[in-house]
Amino acid sequence: MAIDLWRHFKKGLTVYIGIGIAVSFLSAANVFYFQKLLDSFGKTFDWSVVFIYGLTLVLVPLLSYLEQKPKTKLHNSMYFYLKEQALVKISKIAYSEYLQIGSGALLQKTEAGAAAGRNIHLNFYGRLFKELLPETLFNLAFIAMIDKRLIPAILVGYLVVFIVTNLLLKVLRSLKEHALVSEEAMNSTFIRGLTEMVTFRINKRFEKEIAQYKNMSADTTERLTKMTMIHEFFFGFFAVLVALIKVAIVVLAFTNQITVSLGGLAALIIYVDRIYTPVAIFNVIFVQYSLDKVAFARLNEFFYLPEDKALTQGDPLSETINYITVKDLSVILQEKKILTDSTLELKRGAIYGLVGESGAGKSTLIKTILGLYQPTTGAVLINHKNLAAYNLNDYYQHVFYLSQDAPIFQGTLKENIIFDKEIADEEIIAVLEKCQLGAFYQALKGGLSAEIGEKGANLSGGEKQRIAFARLFFTNAEVIVLDEATSALDETTEEKLFAAIKDQLKNKLVIMITHRPKNLIYADEIIELKKTQVEAASS
Ligand SMILES: Nc1ncnc2c1ncn2[C@@H]1O[C@H](COP(=O)(O)OP(=O)(O)OP(=O)(O)O)[C@@H](O)[C@H]1O
Known about the structure:
Elements: H1 5-8, H2 10-39, H3 47-92, H4 95-100, H5 103-146, H6 150-195, H7 197-202, H8 206-254, H9 262-304, E1 323-333, E2 336-347, E3 350-355, H10 362-369, E4 377-382, E5 385-386, H11 392-395, E6 399-402, E7 411-412, H12 413-418, H13 425-434, H14 438-443, E8 451-452, H15 461-470, E9 479-483, H16 491-501, E10 509-513, E11 525-530, E12 533-537
Parallel strand pairs: 3-10, 3-11, 6-9, 9-10
Antiparallel strand pairs: 1-2, 1-4, 4-5, 7-8, 11-12
The structure holds adenosine-5'-triphosphate.
Residues 99, 333-334, 336, 338, 356, 358-364 line the site of adenosine-5'-triphosphate.
């Protein structure tokens, strides 16, 4: 899926470019009528010329003001739209691809890519079509109306300006490229430092990290300063070049080598600025464009990553899930055999305790049952029909899953328990009591609206697990998957929690991964997973 900003912002871009073309035309026409006025000075007085001159003069600032609205709208919405699309992509991306992208790197990629996408469409192509091209063409057309013979000389001027400025900009480009690379490296060091506070502090890594950041920042500052100086030199140099052309025109006119009226001469001097400035601007924005293209291409690579089509395609699943069968299942991930020929028969109404040494593949088995990983061979059957034939979004209506990683997200306590369901506060509070979180809730400032930090910072591991567990009371799913969901709880709390959820688990198909043999008393059947093989054992 490539992002087509042209199509999405067609209306805004058309208005923006349309107004720009009108402004360019009116500015060029204004000089033309100014020349007419000068040439008729002291001879005739034509009201219509004065009127058009005045009108072109007044309309330019008016339209320039109106242009600010589509421009500002596009500037913000293009950037936000690209980031919104990154969220849409994450919602559909294949799980195995998702695992390969680091969240820090993705954050950087989307920030830089969204800004680059906006620059390419608005600041490069937008400016080219609304300003640079029309300004050049309209002004050339009006110059031709003064004297056609000037056009070839102006075109030679273009060539000279283009070649000279291009040479300078090659240096600018290489500097910008290096500055971008060092800025990226700085950002990763920065993000790493902010997110890995505890690991870096205990391992005494911060000193090195800060020194590294300091060095990089000095280096980048140096490059950015150099870049600005070349920028400024470029515009200064360009201004001298245009000044020389203006002097040449005056000399040619005064030595009668070109025949031109006084008004024509004044107009020519103004036109020279207007026809050469777009070349200079083009050269500068082209350098930025070629760099932005790289950042935007990187974001597009992310947009092209495979999506999990099974999320929306396939048969609907409305009937209750009574059976989950794992049949001759093998899973290979990154050329590593994780599961081999595993076979299991699971029924609704039973709790299955899934055990096995660390790395045996318990989570991988669960994730394959959840449709996150695809079987390499064999299949997962839902009510005796291949899971691959079903639409996963429908399947997830029937599934409740607590992962072994921190299951808390940034948001309020209430959101973390019921997501966007509508449930009375008293009901939620009663569930918190059942989940052994009564005292925690009483002490919490802000109650259910209290903000819980990213990944549940400020909460103990056990509190996080119990909050996530509270979700179980608000689900209608008949398949319950608990992946070491109580590993951080002490035995007494865990016992109380299991006693409280007993009724919730009745008539459900429950798969419970656990490393604690004691927890197996809750299981009707124990499944022992050995490395690369699943074996069903008796309860
Ligand atoms: N996406 C992946 N790509 C490659 N290898 C993976 C992937 N996910 C897991 N593995 C590997 O598969 C093996 C099984 O991992 P898994 O997490 O399923 O084991 P587990 O039995 O749940 O372990 P634990 O009890 O420690 O949580 C491990 O060796 C792990 O490194």
